[in-house]
Amino acid sequence: MSLPVPVAELFRSVATSDGYGFPSGHATAAAAVYGGFATFLDTVSRRSRWLAAGGVVVSVAGTRVVLGLHTVEQVVAGAVFGGVLLIAATRLARPGSSPRSGSSPRSGSSPRSGSSPRSGSSPRSGSSPRSGSSPRPDRLFAGVVVVGLTALVVTTLRGDGSGAAVTAIAVGGGVGGSLAWRLHGRDDTPVGGVGAVVGLLIAAVPFGVAAITAENGVPVGPDTLGVRVVVAALAAGVAVWVVLLWPSAIGRLRRLGSTGE
Q1: In terms of C-beta density within 10 A (0-12 exposed, 13-18 middle, 19 or more buried), how is residue 83 classed?
Q2: I need a surface site. Which of 3, 70, 119, 181 has the fewest CB within 10 A?
Q3: What does the pLDDT profile of the chain (261 residues) look like in tens digits?
Q4: How far apart are CA 151 and CA 145, in angstroms?
Q5: Cβ(245)–Cβ(180) under 8 Å?
Q6: Which ranges of 67-136 does DSSP label H, i.e. alpha helix?
Q7: Are 15 and 60 in contact (CB under 8 A)?
Q8: Do 221 and 227 meet the contact criterion of CB atoms below 8 Å apart?
Q9: C-alpha–C-alpha distance, residues 203 and 188, integer Å
Q10: How far, in Å, are 48, 181, 215 from residue 192 at the CA level?
Q11: Would you call 231 exposed, middle or buried from its count of C-beta atoms within 10 A (0-12, 13-18, 19+)?
């Protein structure tokens, strides 16, 4: 039984690879992405989130070894590298108040006048300097764009057309995520299990287009390197945009449904 051509091409691009083997890119991505889910999501318990993320990472790494595409050392190195990327991303997106916002340490009363910092309430009690400030994923997306552009230049200069198109996915995803966050911000509308599945299926369409284009070329039209890079970047940007704006879309649909009753 053969798979339909689009599905077969997507399977081939995901299950096989002829690029660099060390470290494993699949293990790196799994550790960074699913570790990020376990870090930033607030559903179920923290322990359950990390157990689920660890299971996915082990499954992805194990399948790469079983398929004969990587050695154990390569997938372990990929998982460790993904963890390092996750730590760096978490610190980059960490909220923090600007030194120029609020009251300046030099304005008003001097730190030595009045009550001592150690008297009364402790600096750790009450509101923290970072409380009330939201995470800054736009910084993370901007960092992805910078790294992706650097990799795009390097792969292009080396004549690696497939690698250049793959790095375009990172650039497009970073640009799409940064624009979506800056224009719409955070939306905590609960989407529910069914809504989450529907949103992921919708986002999978443009992401699948990006993956197939990067690996196999543009299905329709001229298949030059420039066109392949642009199509892959745009499709990845749309996919990330859908993921970030899906809670807002769910909220609007619910409001329309309530007003129509």
Answers
A1: middle
A2: 119
A3: 565 665 565 556 555 555 556 788 888 888 888 888 888 776 678 888 889 999 999 999 998 888 887 888 889 999 999 899 888 888 877 765 433 334 444 444 444 444 444 444 444 444 333 344 566 777 778 888 888 889 888 888 887 777 788 888 889 988 988 888 888 777 777 777 788 888 889 989 998 888 888 777 776 767 677 888 888 899 999 998 888 888 888 888 888 877 765
A4: 10
A5: yes
A6: 72-92
A7: no
A8: yes
A9: 19
A10: 18, 21, 34
A11: buried
Q: What is the CA radius of gyration of the chain?
A: 22
Q: Whole-angstrom Cα distance, residue 36 to residue 82?
A: 10
Amino acid code (one letter) for 64? R
Residue carrying the six token digits 């992706």: 148
Chain center to CA of 155: 22
pTM for this entry: 0.59
Type of residue at 88: A
**φ, ψ at 178 (rounded to 5°):** -65, -45
Look at residues 211, 224, 92, 75 and name the one whose alpha carbon lies nearest to residue 147: 92
